[in-house]
Write a structure and sequence with these properties.
The complex is a heterodimer. Chain A is α/β, with parallel strands linked by helices. Chain A has helices spanning 10-22, 33-42, 59-69, 84-92, 105-119, 152-163, 171-179, 189-204; strands spanning 2-6, 26-30, 47-51, 74-79, 97-100, 127-129, 132-135, 140-143, 146-148, 169-170, 212-215, 219-222. Chain B is α+β, with helices and mostly antiparallel strands. Chain B is built from 9 helices and 13 strands. In chain B, helix 5 packs antiparallel against helix 6 and helix 7 packs parallel to helix 8 (331-347). The chains are: A alpha/beta, B alpha+beta. Chains A and B meet through helix 1, helix 7 and helix 8 of A and helix 5, helix 6, helix 7 and helix 8 of B.
Chain lengths: 224, 442
């Protein structure tokens, strides 16, 4: 997957690219709208991450132009302006998603994955997790063909951790994913603990779940 | 009442008043006028009689009689001529009763003395009052008809003219004021009028609204820029830390510290979010075009919060009337309002506590929604300040109310509603939101 990051904050662009490359995305960075358009004329991109506050042009203008140059790409708008109308305008112009800054890089990757899944017509392979198999399309977990019943939030948590496997996830990051902007730190994080406990209880009946690790003072990690 | 209606009423009433006054005065005016004319006329007749007597001599009339009385000389007026003594008599005119040829009649009589041949004579010229008032009624009626006609004509002319005159004002009200909503986005065209006052009013309104719109845009741009300036560094920090936490060179205690930093950063993010949110509400950047069903909204909010209630085993009751709707509000803001209040009711509740949401309404009265919990309550001395920004509560865990209730207050004010709070420390709190009756549809 090839990603173009159009972001004028060099530090920010660098961090995003570093993170996404670890998740096996190929990243190009453009610091201005002009550079962004040139890059799009030269390469085909799967994802275009677009900051709205660019120095040479408003991101929304660029979006309406580049939709013609690069129609197959998925666009995610990233903005710190927080203007209420931007979101509506952006989605009207054909953006696939909208992430207000500050956002978690984990959330960005999760959104990108969701868009890919949507565009590929939900054709994800069934993933293995220890002795279990996770079907993201059907949203089901099974052990030797036998389905294990998880609540909606429990499945969300498990699949999110699986997407970011081998990486420590803080309770805050997990609760932000589950409850979005309504998450409440050190309040909902207890609830994450309850969910994890339930997941462990339901799954360990069938097979060991030592891949689900607790990181004291931080959160959880799926290690495979 | 509209200016045009007021003017119409004034014009009509004032003209009618003048007409009535005139009608009341008309008989006495005409009477006086005719008497005055009679007096003048009698004076003229006297001169005529005296000149005739001077020509023909008194004896021609007296013919040896001691007195002369006849209609013959002046055809219409009665003349009486008698010799008078030596007393001096001034000319007088008076109305008196006379018996002439057997009839008792009211006469207007001019009495005058004159000398003829060294003898004083007394001349009386009389005119019956009946003949004086002969045309009065006819004259009155005629005047009245003309008067009514003229007044009707002048009322019509006045009304048509004021209507034309005030038409630009009506147009100004219609295009500049009626149905116009803050922040007055649409461009206005001046109303065509030759009246300078209206021109001035129209121009002032246009420039005022443009100024308001400009100020609104500036404020909006400011919050947008402030948001950008504040959120960008937080955003960079967050991505930095998120990448660092998986860095191979960072050990477990380092990860723990980074995780704590993320939590602190999140707190900062929420504060900035809330401040910008409040400033957007205060600058009226939200539309108020939604109609919401209160019961559904409460359900929507509690769905979002169900897990938190479950954690504390809280019993939740929603007794809000299913048909209660609030008009001209912003859905997202009201969601936030109820979210913050119910969230607080959970947060400051005890295990196995309860939350009751109920509403009170009677026709034409304000609509009240109560959110009542059995939580830790608020001390009386703190009740006044809980809506202030960043007010720390005196609770032992040192946790403040933050900005949640400030947001609530801003949303309530923005919708022209009112919020009241009553609380018993240690027993629970009751928040009441009161919406004006005209916003309610039941």
């Amino acid at each position: 997957m090839r990603v173009l990051i159009i972001e004028d904050e060099k530090n920010m662009a660098g961090e995003m690219s570093e993170f996404l490359e670890k998740a096996f995305y190929l990243c190009d960075i453009a610091y201005t709208a002009d550079q962004g358009r040139k890059a799009m004329e030269e390469n085909q991109y799967d994802f275009i991450l677009l900051d709205l506050g660019l120095p040479d042009k408003d991101g929304l203008h660029l979006l309406s132009e580049t939709k013609k140059i690069c129609p197959s790409a998925s666009y995610i708008i990233l903005t710190a302006r927080g203007d209420l109308e931007d979101r509506i305008k952006g989605l009207d112009l054909g953006a696939d998603d909208y992430l207000p800054k500050p956002f978690s890089l984990l959330e960005l990757q999760s959104r990108m994955q969701a868009i890919s899944r949507r565009k590929s017509g939900n054709n994800d392979p069934v993933l293995d997790l220890g002795e279990f198999s996770i079907d993201l399309n059907k949203r089901s977990v099974s052990y030797q063909e036998k389905e294990i019943e998880l609540s909606r939030k429990e499945f969300d948590l498990l699949s999110y951790m699986l997407l970011h496997k081998n990486r420590p996830l803080t309770r805050l990051q997990l609760s932000e994913h589950i409850w979005g902007s309504f998450s409440d730190d050190d309040y909902d994080s207890n609830y994450i603990d309850v969910h994890i406990k339930n997941i462990r209880k339901k799954m360990s009946v069938h097979a060991p779940v030592e891949w689900l690790q607790t990181l004291r003072g931080i959160g959880y990690k799926i290690k495979i | 009442m509209k200016l045009l209606s007021k003017l119409t009423l004034f014009v009509t009433f004032s003209k009618l008043l003048i007409a009535i006054l005139f009608v009341l005065l008309l008989p006495s005016l005409i009477k006086r006028a005719s008497f005055q004319y009679t007096n003048y006329y009698l004076g003229q007749q006297k001169k005529k009689v005296l000149s005739v007597i001077a020509k023909n001599g008194v004896d021609y009339y007296l013919q040896g009689d001691s007195a002369y009385g006849s209609y013959t000389m002046l055809k219409e007026e009665y003349i009486s001529l008698i010799p008078a003594g030596n007393q001096i008599i001034h000319d007088t005119i008076e109305t008196s009763r006379r018996i002439i040829e057997g009839d008792t009649l009211n006469y207007r009589v001019l009495t005058s003395a004159f000398m003829y041949g060294n003898k004083n004579y007394l001349l009386e010229i009389g005119k019956t009052t009946a003949t004086i008032g002969q045309y009065n009624n006819l004259l009155q009626r005629f005047t009245l008809f003309i008067l009514i006609g003229l007044i009707l004509l002048s009322i019509i002319v006045d009304l048509v003219y004021t209507n034309i005159l005030l038409r630009p004002l009506a147009r100004i009200v219609r295009t500049k004021l009626q149905g116009r909503k803050f922040p007055f986005k649409d461009v206005l065209t001046p109303v065509k009028t030759s009246t300078s006052d209206f021109k001035y009013l129209d121009r002032s309104l246009i420039s005022l609204m443009e100024k308001i719109h400009e100020a609104f845009d500036k404020e909006r741009e400011f919050t947008s820029n402030a948001s950008h300036e504040l959120m960008t560094p937080i955003s960079i920090l967050q991505t930095n830390i998120e990448n660092m936490i998986v860095d191979e060179g960072v050990d477990e205690s380092g990860q723990e510290k980074l995780s704590a930093m993320l939590i602190t950063l999140n707190r900062l993010k929420k504060i900035v979010h809330s401040l910008l949110y409040i400033s957007r509400i205060d600058n009226e950047q939200f539309t108020k075009m939604d109609t919401i069903n209160v019961h559904d909204l409460v359900t929507e909010v509690t769905n979002e919060l169900a897990h938190r209630m479950e954690m504390k085993s809280i019993i939740f009751t929603n007794t809000v009337a299913r048909k209660a709707n609030i008009k001209q509000v912003n859905h997202d803001l009201l969601f936030q309002l109820f979210y913050n209040l119910i969230n607080n009711a959970i947060r400051y509740n005890k295990e196995y506590g309860s939350i009751i949401i109920s509403d009170y309404y009677s026709e034409g009265q304000p609509y009240r929604i109560s959110i009542k919990d059995t939580g830790i309550g608020i001390r009386e001395e703190e009740l006044e300040t809980i809506f202030n920004r960043f007010k720390k509560s005196g609770q032992s865990d040192g946790e403040g109310y933050g900005l949640g209730l400030s947001i609530v207050k801003s949303i309530v004010d923005y919708h022209g509603a009112e919020i009241r709070v009553s609380s018993e420390f240690g027993k629970g709190t009751d928040f009441n939101i009161i919406f004006p009756a005209e916003k309610i549809g039941i």
